[in-house]
Every structure is written in structure tokens, then in C-alpha cells.
Specification:
The complex is a heterodimer. By secondary structure, chain A is of the alpha/beta class. Helix content of chain A is 30%, strand content 23%. Chain A is built from 5 helices and 12 strands. In chain A, the strands form 3 sheets. In chain A, strands 1-12-7-4-2-3 form a 6-stranded parallel sheet. Chain A has a 4-stranded mixed sheet with strand order 8-5-6-9, with helices on both faces. Chain B has 3 domains: 104 residues, no CATH class; 255 residues, 3-Layer(aba) Sandwich (Rossmann fold), CATH 3.40.50; 54 residues, no CATH class. Helix content of chain B is 52%, strand content 11%. In chain B, the strands form 3 sheets. In chain B, strands 1-10-7-4-2-3 form a 6-stranded parallel sheet, with helices on both faces. Chain B is globular and about 80 Å long. Classes of the chains: A alpha/beta, B alpha/beta. At the A-B interface, helix 1, helix 2, helix 5, strand 9 and strand 10 of A face helix 2, helix 3, helix 4, strand 1 and helix 8 of B. Strand 9 of chain A pairs antiparallel with strand 9 of chain B, so a sheet runs across the interface. The complex binds iron/sulfur cluster. Iron/sulfur cluster (SF4) binds next to helix 14 of chain B.
């Protein structure tokens, strides 16, 4: 293996044919590139005021069949989740990320809702997790993996519910990652960008939802307590 | 893998006479082609992003050795393993060894063109390892024992009825026609396989040198289940997938979905860095990344280096009149359409594939839509030159070119000859406006009509219009 490594790198170097002086300059160019590529090409689309970002996020999310409902304060979450499950004719049962932030909601307010904590397995019909950020640019969710946010929750169950705080909606993917890095200082094993439920066009290019991942994606947008959402953004 | 590209002409004739295929290919125009136009128009920065995309790839290729070393260092530091494969055979051996070490009986696989290129599918099966494709399109063609016919939609050549038949035959279930029910059936069958697999194999759309991360993009979510459930994750990818930074990856990601399917962003874009961390509740324990060369370093430093910018979006084929008429299988190997006509001779040898660079009308549409601005027609012309130099051109074409060359160097004679020919063609074809049949061009007029010319030559009309001929 190490032999192939040498051969391969050697092939590359020979094809590029740099002289020793050029080599020094090449390393410099690589360093400059990294500095200059930092968020240098972010489209203007998502660079808006906070309230407009939320509006744009909702617009793009709904365009790809994500269902969105906006509520005020974490205590409103359990009722909205329970109502959603009822509307979809799904059992009042879900597996939830062991994320402490989700405990801010008073889940005991919905006594019918049966909740387990952890990652999903094949028998779970509904998973619930917390988004690291929302990206207004394309209505995309970012979920950073970790011991409190297992990734499979967003992929295995047929229905995926994601809680997203409105003050975590940023303009671009780059800003979403930066938000995570600022808080944790570390790249997780997996940064999952999710834009709508699972889909396929593999049968005669006809769009079908729920190919492998969720058939339904429901986002509960939570405003910090006290700041009422604008009436136009209220969910169905 | 054996290429049947030399039979392009025969294979495309069969394709043109196949109504199901023509039906399926029609979907591409109304779907992906139209969607791309809409998505590109909806993002004001799209053209600027294309320039940036080209610059990112050019810079990376110019410093590929440095970025390879950087990537390897980062992956290793996170507990992953990088393997280098000089060619397809070595790549196959590496992957098989990794499967054996994991004591794998079954592997799940999410779509990877490099995996197709190195022929891993047949190889694993020949060595007693069950392989299950998880991308729905790949799964359908696995059942049908076919090759992918498109970069993004491997089963783009099939109609819904053909899928119904295939599932009915292989799943031993009643024949269903509803596409939603077909998708649900595949979901049910494949679900079990995810849990049974010991190794998950995926490709990668981009490798990020500064962080040692890699990116997968799907709409189905199958890559995440493929790498997330088994204990071992093997990534089969190639050296030109590198980009310097995460921001560079996102610039190219903004181009990828819009160019491929016309989506604003694919449903699932995942950036993975290293194996499962302490405390993680899921994710693979072992991570192996196989970096394949297989002829790519031969393209570096040559005219074909530009081809290494390709991000495998499929836009060039979605807009290619030849591809849309002939379908992907006519190209006879893994890569199809205009990008295939440039890449396949590199991988399978020009002597086995010289028909491909000629399978073009040189309309230029592919270059027009390529997100990283690869001059595909120019590169196809390069192959034609190589082909002519190596004496691979058929004698009639050689003779024709020589005759043309004789006249082309004698402009007066050339104009005399062409104006005579145009006059004759115009005279005979003017009434109907087109020829359904032409002597000596029967092969051409079987599946299309030749519009009758105006009866004059361009040069004559140009002169008459009063424009200055320089
Ligand atoms: S050549 Fe360009 S258009 Fe074709 S697949 Fe590659 S990147 Fe896309």
C-alpha cells in the first residue's frame, strides 16, 4: 500500500512538473487559497434581516414538501407534535434525540404521547430531533451528529420531526457550519444537510417521496418565548 | 470492464428503433433539462459560481500532490484509513481485502461511478460476497443485469412498465403499476438488506483536503443508511474529487444539484469526517477511503486535464441530442454522453472506443451547460486527431477527409464544387423542404430527414449580403 502511495504521488508530481523553486511558491499559493476562499462566494439570496431569513426558509422548505409550523416558546412544541401525528393518522409514539435542549418543552402536557430516547431502529415510525441550524438559502436543515443527536433518527423512520429555533436560521450553509464551530470548536463525524423528505425520480422520472429516508418531514419552528410570530408565517 | 463502444453505430441503431427507450429519454428533456434552465435562472450568481467552480478545480489539480498529502494526514489523524490504488485491479483487491477483514457476507452499496469504473460489482460477487445496490435506479438495473445509462439516473432508460415487470419477476409479488407502490416495495425489500450488511460502500462527490472530510449527495437518503448502519464504511473514490476547503465544496455543491436535476439543493448532502466518535450512538466504527488513479494522472499536464474538473452532474448528457436519441447504453461503457466520449477512450483505450469522439454533432450545447466549463467538443476533437494519427480512422472517412483537404487548400475549386452541390440539392429538395432519402447517405436518413439547403452556399450568400469577406 505504501508503495502505491509513493508511485501515485510520484505520478502526480511528475505530471505537474514543478521545479524546486516553484514548489515553494506552490505551498504559498495553497495557504493563500485557504484564506481567500473563506465564505467568498456566498450568494446574496440568504443575506437578509432575521425575520426575512425566516420567511425565506419557510418558502424554500415548503417548496420541497417540508411541512412547517411556527410556534412561540418550547412549551408549545408537544401539542403541535401530537396534533401533527393525529393529522397524519400516526400512533402517538416517537423516538427522540437524547438532547437536553428538548427537555425544555413540557412533554408531560401530552400524556398520550409515548416517548423513548436514543437512536432509531427499524421498528420506529417517527423520529424527533433538534436542528443545529436552518439555512434560508434553500430551506435546508443542518443536523450535526453527536452523542445527543444520533444521525439515524433523521433517516430511518418514515416520519421525521425536527425542532428548529428561529434564531438559528442563518443565510448560508457556510454560516450554519460556522454557528456549530463557534459553539463546539469541532467538526462532528457527520454534518447532515437535509432539504425536504427523501425522494426519487428513478421510476420514469416521476417524483415519489419516501424512497429510503422519511416520507414526511415536519419542522417545528420555535420562536423564543414572548416574541410572537407574524400571522403570515403561521402553519396550516 | 470490457467496452463495446466500437459498436456505437449498431447499438444506437437498435436504440433509435426502441420505442420504450425513446419514451424514457423524452422525460429527460421535459424534466431535468427544463428544470436546470429554471434553477440556473433563479440564482443571479450562477454564472459567477461556474467561473469560481472552474477556478477551484484548476487550482486543486495544479496542486494535487499537496492536497492529497493534506487530505491523507487529516483522515489519518481522525482515525480513518486512506488507501491508494494505481489502477482498477489494485482498487478491487483493496476493497475485497477490506470486506474480508470485516468478515463480510453481504455489502450494501450506494451509487458510485468509480465503483462501476473499477468493476467492483462483478468482482465482489465472483468472490462470494453478496452486493446490494441501494440507490433505487441502481437497484433496478442490478436486478436487470444492466449497466447504468446515466450519471445521475442510472435507470433513466426504463419506463414505469419495465420497472413493474422487473419487480414482479424478481420480488415474486403481484405486478403493480402505481409508481408510489413500486417505490414502497423497493423500500421494504431494501430495508432488511441495510441491517444485514457488514460493510457499506459509498462513493464521494467531494473530498475536502483541509479537514479530511468527504461529501455524499443523494435524494433518497440511501448513502446515510449505507454508511450509517454497518460496522465498516468503505469509500471508493478518485483523486480528482479533492477540493481545498469546505467553502470550495459548497460552491461546487451549489452548482451540482442545479446542473443535474434542476433542484435548488439535493435532499441529502452529508459531510462526514472520520469514523464514529466516542459517545456517538451510531455511525461506522471503521472508515476506509480508497483513492483511485486508474489513468487520471495520465491526463494531468495534458490537454485532457480539463476533463478532471468534471463533477459528474450529467448536464452535458441531458442536453446532448446524440445521447437523448441513442441512450446511454449505446456508448458501451460506464461513462456516457459527451463526458463519456472524452473519458472512455482514456480508460478503455482509444483503439477500443474511437467511435465515441465521433458521436457528436458538435452543437456545443454540452460545453454551454457544463458547470465547470469543460470544453467537451474541443476534447472530443483532440481524440479525433489522436485517432487519425494512430491510423484508427476507417478508410472511407480517411479518403473523404483527404479529398476534403485537397479542396479546402484550394478555395476557388472548393467554392466551385460546393456551389454546384448546393445548387443540385436545393433544386431537388426545395419543394418538400427536406430529403427523406439521399443516395450514399442512407444510414443518415433512416432516422432523420436532411433539410434541403437554400440552393446557395454560405460564402455566396455572405458576399451577396454585402458583408466584407476578410
Ligand atoms: S462534463 Fe460537465 S456537464 Fe458533463 S457531467 Fe461533467 S461537470 Fe457535468
Amino acid at each position: 500500500m505504501s508503495d502505491s502511495r509513493t508511485v501515485l504521488l510520484d505520478r502526480v508530481k511528475r505530471a505537474l512538473g514543478r521545479t524546486p523553486e516553484e514548489d515553494a511558491r506552490a505551498s504559498e499559493r495553497v495557504a493563500t487559497w485557504a484564506r481567500e476562499s473563506r465564505a467568498a462566494f456566498v450568494p446574496a439570496r440568504g443575506q437578509l434581516t432575521p425575520e426575512d431569513r425566516i420567511g425565506l426558509f419557510i418558502e424554500y422548505a415548503r417548496a420541497v414538501q417540508t411541512e412547517v409550523e411556527r410556534v412561540s416558546g418550547p412549551d408549545a412544541i408537544p401539542a403541535v407534535v401530537s396534533r401533527y401525528l393525529r393529522r397524519q393518522n400516526l400512533p402517538q409514539k416517537l423516538v427522540m434525540a437524547p438532547e437536553p435542549a428538548l427537555d425544555e418543552a413540557d412533554w408531560s402536557s401530552q400524556p398520550l404521547l409515548r416517548i423513548t430516547r436514543g437512536t432509531a431502529d427499524d421498528s420506529d415510525q417517527t423520529g424527533l430531533t433538534l436542528a443545529t441550524a436552518g439555512v434560508a438559502e434553500t430551506g435546508t436543515l443542518l443536523i450535526a451528529s453527536g452523542s445527543e443527536r444520533p444521525t439515524l433518527l433523521a433517516y430511518l423512520p418514515e416520519t421525521c420531526i425536527v425542532v428548529l429555533a428561529t434564531d438559528r436560521i442563518v443565510g448560508s450553509y457556510e454560516q450554519a457550519i460556522q454557528l456549530h464551530l463557534d459553539e463546539t470548536g469541532d467538526l462532528p463525524r457527520s454534518l447532515n444537510f437535509i432539504t425536504g423528505p427523501s425522494r426519487t425520480g428513478d421510476i420514469a422520472q416521476k417524483l415519489e417521496l419516501g424512497a429510503h429516508g422519511p416520507r414526511r418531514l415536519f419542522v417545528v419552528l420555535v420562536d423564543p418565548e414572548g416574541s410572537a410570530p407574524g400571522p403570515a408565517d403561521r402553519g396550516p | 470492464m470490457h467496452a463495446t463502444s466500437l459498436a456505437f453505430e449498431a447499438q444506437s441503431k437498435v436504440a433509435l428503433a426502441n420505442p420504450a427507450l425513446q419514451d424514457a429519454m423524452g422525460n429527460i428533456k421535459t424534466g431535468w433539462q427544463a428544470n436546470r434552465t429554471r434553477a440556473a435562472a433563479a440564482l443571479p450568481e450562477f454564472e459567477a459560481l461556474r467561473d469560481r467552480g472552474r477556478a477551484i478545480k484548476n487550482h486543486t489539480l495544479q496542486h494535487l500532490d499537496l492536497y492529497l498529502e493534506m487530505f491523507e494526514e487529516k483522515v489519518t489523524a481522525q482515525g480513518g484509513h486512506v488507501h491508494y490504488a494505481r489502477d482498477a485491479a489494485e482498487a478491487r483487491t483493496i476493497v475485497l481485502d477490506l470486506c474480508r477483514t470485516a468478515e463480510a457476507r453481504a455489502v450494501t452499496k450506494s451509487k458510485s461511478m468509480v465503483a462501476e469504473e473499477i468493476g467492483i460489482n462483478e468482482y465482489l460477487e465472483a468472490n462470494g460476497i453478496e452486493r446490494i445496490e441501494t440507490d433505487l435506479g441502481e437497484y433496478i438495473i442490478q436486478l436487470r443485469k444492466e449497466r447504468p445509462s446515466h450519471l445521475v439516473g442510472p435507470a433513466a432508460h426504463l419506463t414505469k412498465d419495465q420497472v413493474s415487470d422487473t419487480f414482479h419477476e424478481h420480488h415474486h409479488t403481484p405486478r403493480i403499476e402505481d409508481p408510489a407502490a413500486l417505490v414502497a416495495e423497493a423500500r421494504r425489500v431494501l430495508r432488511q438488506k441495510y441491517f444485514e450488511a457488514d460493510v457499506g460502500i459509498t462513493g464521494a462527490n467531494f473530498l475536502v483536503a483541509e479537514t479530511g472530510s468527504f461529501v455524499t449527495v443523494t435524494n433518497e437518503g440511501n448513502a446515510e443508511l449505507t454508511q450509517g448502519l454497518p460496522r465498516t464504511h468503505v469509500v471508493i473514490t478518485s483523486i480528482e474529487k479533492l477540493v481545498p476547503t469546505m467553502d470550495d465544496a459548497f460552491t461546487l455543491l451549489r452548482l451540482l444539484a442545479r446542473s443535474a436535476t434542476g433542484q435548488e439543493f439535493s435532499s441529502y448532502t452529508t459531510l462526514m469526517t472520520g469514523p464514529r466518535r466516542e459517545g456517538d450512538l451510531d455511525g461506522p466504527e471503521n472508515l476506509h477511503i480508497v483513492l483511485v488513479d486508474n489513468g487520471r494522472t495520465k491526463m494531468l499536464g495534458t490537454a485532457f486535464q480539463e476533463m478532471l474538473r468534471c463533477i459528474r452532474c450529467g448536464a452535458c448528457m441531458n442536453h446532448c441530442p446524440v445521447y437523448l436519441a441513442a441512450g446511454g447504453h449505446a456508448y458501451g461503457w460506464v461513462y456516457v454522453g459527451p463526458m463519456g466520449s472524452v473519458l472512455t477512450p482514456q480508460f478503455a483505450g482509444i483503439e477500443n472506443t474511437y467511435t465515441l469522439p465521433n458521436a457528436s454533432t458538435f452543437c456545443g450545447k454540452c460545453e454551454e451547460v457544463c458547470p465547470v466549463r469543460i470544453p467537451l467538443p474541443k476534447l472530443m476533437r483532440h481524440w479525433r486527431e489522436v485517432q487519425f494519427e494512430r491510423n484508427l480512422t476507417p478508410p472511407t472517412a480517411r479518403w473523404g477527409l483527404k479529398v476534403w483537404g485537397f479542396f479546402a487548400r484550394r478555395p476557388a475549386l472548393y467554392r466551385l464544387g460546393t456551389s454546384f452541390a448546393m445548387g443540385m440539392l436545393g433544386l431537388f429538395g426545395r419543394k418538400a423542404g427536406r430529403f427523406k432519402q439521399l443516395p450514399l447517405a442512407g444510414g443518415w436518413t433512416v432516422s432523420r430527414d436532411l433539410p434541403a439547403p437554400a440552393g446557395t452556399t454560405f460564402m455566396a450568400a455572405y458576399k451577396k449580403s454585402g458583408a466584407r469577406v476578410r
